[in-house]
Every structure is written in structure tokens, then in C-alpha cells.
Specification:
48% helix, Spore Coat Polysaccharide Biosynthesis Protein SpsA, Chain A, single chain, 322 residues, alpha/beta, 13% strand, elongated, 8-stranded mixed β-sheet, 10 helices
């Protein structure tokens, strides 16, 4: 199979028939074998019923329905596990992503040998209240991750199948799949300017809160990528440094007290010396950091799967474990 299309759905009943017809036309024109995997992420409208009607006419459709809304990352992770295509393409269900981009996204993976291609909505049909924060956000993420992409948030991306089977997407980490792929050793990451179409149906599911949560998630993914398998190298090192700093303070206090005793001058009480409290604080914090690293090492070796969600229904044939 050439292409697996992973499409998260949240209250998109109006756009689904048009999206399915558009995808069928593009695939037929380019002679690409494909599957569409819709993930209904807890829709409250008739999206699931519409998907069932579409599958009755298009056997290439498979679908998963979550019992409640778990978020885009959970939807993508579930779709990734089920995907069978040589190339996996993700896109939104609101028709703002154009299926006409699929053939070129597929070609860049197969012929150009890239592991991942991220869409870049260079010309956006969004208000300044969304475009300006998005540009700032993408600028920061590109500098921190050292991945030269202009639009990390673009939902239109293509992947080599091995990539999606190797990354674990949880929380709101779908924004950082390129970085997760890089941490997994897939470093051939490209970019393609894609069309951003004005919203035709429904409303945006994202607000200002994702800007703050996005930066927090960035800190998390960078930390996990660097120290997730070796937390002691972070907590342990800083714990030792802080503890030694406190030890030096304590040593200074001890030497000072011995000096006063040696010269016969009045010896001040240790509790009256501000350095005593600095030493005590540093040694306690240092010990706690070291213990945190030790406990984190134990947890990292026995951590359960982070992706835990309940599938209400399955539509189509899925391999055992998907």
C-alpha cells in the first residue's frame, strides 16, 4: 500500500463527505493505493455516523472512535499504530489542508529519501492574533530544536512508515513529532510549502492556551529527549554540584570557627552565621536532587505506557494489538 492517511476528527460532520470525495479523486488520478484512517476523537455531532456512511461507499476507509475526547496526540498515536502504508500522511478534517498536496508529499518520501516532510503554510488565512504568536512560537522551537522548519504546528505532514512506528506521541506532543523523530534517529527532515485554505465549516478547536502549553511541552520534550533514558545524568550532576556548594559553605564555617578558637577571640555561634543556613539549604537540596535522579532511574526502567485511552468502537479490520 502506498499511502495511509491519518485524519483526526472532532465535530466535522459537514466537511467529511467533501474531504473523502476529494481524496478519492486525487488518489485515482495519481494511481496511488491508499487507506483512510479516521479517528473520531469524542465528537458530539454526527461525525461517526457520517464516517460509517462513507465507508459503505469507500472500502478504503477504516475508523476508530474514542469514548471521549483525548486530544490530537492520542488520535495520531492510535492512527500511527494502525497505519499499513509505505508513507503515512496526517491531515486535518476541516478542509483547510488540501488533499492535492498528497502526491508530492508521497514523492518526497519515496523518491527524495526523506524520513519526514512537514508542511509550511506560508500564506495563512488566519487573523493576526493567531499568525503573530505562531511565528514567534515557531521561531523559538526551531532555535531550540535545531530543526530548520517554519511551521511545526502544521497538521499536514508525511512520514516514512518506520518513523511513526518509532515515535511515541502523548499529551500534546503532536506539535513536536519532528523533534521526536530526530531524537529517534530520523534526521532527514524536509519541508514543503502547502496551501492553507480558509475554513469552510465549523470553528477552530484551538485557542490562546496552546501558546503557553506549547512552550511547556517544548521544555518537556527537550528534557525527555536528552535525559529521559538517563535522568541521573541531570538530577545527579546538579545534586552533586549543589551539595558540594553547601559542603564548601560548611567547611568555610568550620575553618572560621577553628581560627577564632586558635587566636583566642570570641567565637560567634554557628546559628548566627548566615552562611550556615546557606550551607544547610544547599546540602538538603543537593541530596533531594540526587535522590530524585535515583528514583527517576528506577521509574524509567519500569514506566508503563503513557498512551492510555479507551476505544469505544472499531470500524474495519485491524491487526491484533492495533
Amino acid at each position: 500500500m502506498n499511502v495511509s492517511l491519518i485524519i483526526p476528527v472532532l465535530d466535522e460532520e459537514e466537511s467529511l463527505p467533501e474531504l473523502d470525495a476529494w481524496i478519492q479523486r486525487v488518489m485515482a488520478e495519481n494511481k496511488l493505493s491508499y487507506e483512510i484512517i479516521f479517528i473520531d476523537d469524542g465528537s458530539t455531532d454526527k461525525s461517526w455516523q457520517v464516517i460509517g456512511q462513507l465507508r459503505a461507499k469507500n472500502p478504503n476507509i477504516r475508523a476508530i472512535k474514542f469514548r471521549r475526547n483525548y486530544g490530537k496526540s492520542a488520535a495520531l498515536h492510535s492512527g500511527f499504530q494502525a497505519a499499513k502504508g509505505q508513507v503515512v500522511i496526517t491531515m486535518d478534517a476541516d478542509l483547510q489542508d488540501s488533499p492535492d498536496e498528497i502526491p508530492e508529499l508521497h514523492r518526497m518520501i519515496v523518491e527524495d529519501g526523506l524520513d519526514l516532510v512537514s508542511g509550511w503554510k506560508k500564506k495563512r488565512h488566519d487573523p493576526l492574533s493567531k499568525t503573530i504568536p505562531s511565528k514567534f512560537y515557531n521561531f523559538v522551537v526551531a532555535r531550540v530544536s535545531k530543526i530548520n522548519l517554519h511551521d511545526f504546528n502544521c497538521g499536514l505532514k508525511s512520514y516514512r512508515n518506520e518513523v511513526v512506528k518509532s515515535v511515541e506521541v502523548y499529551g500534546d506532543m503532536h506539535r513536536y513529532i519532528p523533534l521526536l523523530a530526530k531524537w529517534s534517529g530520523f534526521k532527514k527532515i524536509g519541508e514543503k510549502v502547502v496551501e492553507h485554505r480558509a475554513r469552510k465549516y465549523g470553528y477552530s478547536k484551538f485557542g490562546w492556551s496552546r501558546l503557553l502549553t506549547g512552550f511547556l511541552d517544548l521544555l518537556s520534550v527537550v528534557f525527555v529527549g536528552r535525559y529521559g533514558k538517563k535522568p541521573m545524568q541531570f538530577f545527579g550532576v546538579w545534586g552533586v554540584i549543589v551539595f558540594l556548594l553547601g559542603f564548601l559553605f560548611a567547611l568555610f564555617i568550620s575553618i572560621s570557627k577553628i581560627y577564632h578558637l586558635a587566636v583566642g577571640t570570641k567565637v560567634p555561634l554557628i546559628a548566627d552565621n548566615p552562611w550556615f543556613y546557606g550551607a544547610l539549604t544547599c546540602m538538603i537540596i543537593g541530596s533531594q536532587l540526587f535522590l530524585a535522579g535515583f528514583i527517576a532511574e528506577l521509574i524509567s526502567r519500569n514506566a508503563p505506557h503513557r498512551n492510555h485511552y479507551v476505544v469505544q468502537e472499531w470500524l474495519g479490520e485491524f491487526e491484533e494489538g492495533n
